[in-house]
Amino acid sequence: MVSAPLIANFWKMFGDERATKFVLALHQRSRIQGRLQFWQESMLEEFYRNTETAPLDFKTVLSTFNICPVHQAELLEDTVSIEYGTRKALKPAEIDRANNTYPFASTVKYGPCWVEAKTTATVFYCPACRDALRNERA
Questions:
Q1: Quick one: residue 68, left, alpha or beta (phi over 0 = left, psi -120 to 50 = alpha)?
Q2: What is the pLDDT of residue 1?
Q3: Is the confidence at residue 106, as pLDDT, over 80?
Q4: Which of 80, 119, 101, 105 is nearest to 27 (CA)?
Q5: Which residue ranges make up each domain of the chain?
Q6: What is the mean pLDDT of residues 75-85?
Q7: Which one of 12-21, 81-90, 104-113 scores highest in mean pLDDT?
Q8: CA-CA distance, 124 to 112, in Å (whole number)?
Q9: Distance between CA atoms of 64 and 22, rounded to whole angstroms?
Q10: Residue ranges of the alpha helices (H) in the chain?
Q11: Cα distance between residue 136 and residue 84, in whole Å
């Protein structure tokens, strides 16, 4: 349930950098933990106060902000393979590039260094992010 006016007001109030950080953390950390971080709660409280928006519960926040902050596209659900094993750590510049160009490509899910029985996982992805990643690798 992406709400375009609410998201537009959120972006206008906090600016691109803070709003993007909020959405990335929402889908990369808060979704896994099942709760918002304190700083995210503070941002939402400020937003509710200044826009007279009714407070949203966690599940509604997830569905309302179910967008890619780079492409403003709704995130879709997909099943991808899980890759187990130790990987080379990404450099900070590579992480920044991914977060700024295709943060929700979500073409694979990374598991721990040991192999588990589960071979697939559900992810949320942005079609435009997948296109950007595919074009970069081409």
A1: beta
A2: 57
A3: yes
A4: 105
A5: 4-64, 76-137
A6: 94
A7: 12-21
A8: 20
A9: 13
A10: 4-25, 31-33, 38-51, 58-64, 92-101, 127-137
A11: 24
Using 50, 70 and 90 to split pLDDT, how confident is the model at 35? very high
Average pLDDT, the chain: 92
Mean pLDDT for the stretch of residues 111-120? 91
Look up residue 69 and give its amino acid. P
Record the tokens describing residue 34, joined without a space: 């099942």
Q: Which residue has the tokens 């990404």?
A: 90
Distance separating alpha carbons of residues 55 and 121, to the nearest angstrom: 31
Tens digit of each residue's pLDDT (9 = 90 or more) over 9-31 = 999 999 999 999 999 999 989 99
| Beta-carbon-side half-sphere exposure of residue 15 (alpha carbons within 13 Å) | 2
Strands of the sheet containing 76-83, edge to edge, are 109-110, 76-83, 120-125
CA dihedral 120, 22, 20, 110 (to 10 degrees): -20
Cα distance between residue 73 and residue 126, in whole Å: 6
